[in-house]
Design goal:
Layout: H1 2-7, E1 10-14, E2 37-40, H2 51-58, E3 62-65, H3 66-69, H4 82-86, E4 91-95, H5 106-111, E5 115-117, H6 124-139, E6 164-168, H7 172-182, E7 187-191, H8 198-204, E8 206-208, H9 212-218, E9 221-224, H10 238-243, E10 249-252, H11 261-270, E11 275-278, E12 293-296, E13 299-302
Parallel strand pairs: 2-3, 4-5, 6-7, 6-9, 7-8, 9-10, 10-11
Antiparallel strand pairs: 1-2, 1-4, 11-13, 12-13
Helix pairs in contact: 6-7
């Protein structure tokens, strides 16, 4: 449930109270109504359900706020498990306000007749923006510069304009990254399960690499933009990192487990690659591993 709680305001809906260990008496939402109950993050104009929206929701649902749910921590698990599902016989849906559903046990949830939904287009632009921001920050040492008035020559960084960007995963977000990178006159390579159409490639001046190895050794920046699946687990490991340029930078905006974190630490410490800019890590948060460490929001930049 913790993973669900971080993804957005609306989590699940049930005809009965969808909270393990809570009763009508101790959740402060006492009602005899048969309206469904909805578990929500919090009442907030910026980080949760807006007040005017809450009033509309209350006409159709009884809201249980997540801080009340957390009072029963002993009943919670990192993921939705059998015990929780068994306690919610009328649960209708698990709603994840994000793209990835790798934090959910889909076969298990489906076996209870519960639907799972997500919002696949919600953060496409924001994620692509973050990828570009991380790449620029790592290239110019923005996050790790020790001085705001004088910068020695070795902190100047590397050029982004005209550099080669290799995008692993050319889906919606990967393509938006390519659109942005074109504005920096970058040479764009990509590796994907399915090749884009010639027209789509032409629009962003992208070249397809059928083999990931060909992308790795040519790229100055490698950006990982794939879903986490059994096939992509530790997709970037020691072998893949060794194929990158020693001046190369790895940017990960997908899922932390797509990169073998131990192999990445070793590659950074040994100088196998120049830098890594990480929006996600495995585990999170990642301990400091070098002379520079910056955190902004849900983002880590490590050198």
């Amino acid at each position: 449930m913790a993973a669900l709680a971080r993804t957005g305001p609306l989590l699940q809906v049930s005809k009965k109270l969808p909270v393990l260990g809570l009763t009508r008496q101790n959740c402060k939402q006492s009602t005899m109504s048969e309206r469904p109950y909805i578990l929500s993050s919090k009442l907030s104009d910026t980080e949760g359900i807006q007040r005017e929206h809450a009033e509309i929701i209350k006409k159709h649902f009884n809201i249980i706020w997540f801080d009340e749910f957390l009072k029963n921590k002993e009943e919670l698990a990192n993921k939705i498990q059998v015990k929780l599902l068994q306690s919610l016989p009328r649960l209708k849906a698990v709603v994840s306000s994000g793209v990835g559903v790798d934090h959910l046990h889909l076969p298990l949830i489906s076996s209870f007749g519960v639907k799972v939904t997500n919002t696949p287009h919600l953060v496409d632009n924001a994620t692509a923006d973050m990828g570009m921001a991380l790449m620029l920050a790592s290239a110019r040492n923005i996050a790790t510069s020790p001085d705001t008035q004088y910068m020695p020559w070795n902190w100047v960084g590397v050029e982004v304009t005209g550099a080669t960007l290799g995008i692993i995963g050319m889906g919606r977000i990967g393509y938006k990254v390519a659109q942005r990178a074109k504005g920096f006159d970058m040479k764009i390579l990509y590796h994907n399960r399915n090749r884009r159409t010639e027209e789509e490639e032409r629009v962003v001046d992208a070249s397809y690499c059928a083999k990931i190895d060909d992308l790795l050794w040519q790229s100055d920046f490698v950006m990982v933009v794939v879903n986490l699946t059994p096939q992509t687990l530790k997709l970037i490991g020691e072998r893949e990192l060794s194929l990158m340029k020693p001046t190369g930078t790895l940017v990960n905006i997908s899922r932390g487990a797509v990169v073998d974190q131990d192999a990445l630490v070793k590659a950074l410490q040994n100088g196998t690659i120049r830098a890594a800019a990480l929006d996600v890590t495995d585990p999170e948060p990642l301990p400091r591993i070098g002379e520079g460490n910056w955190r902004g929001g849900a983002t880590d930049v490590e050198y």
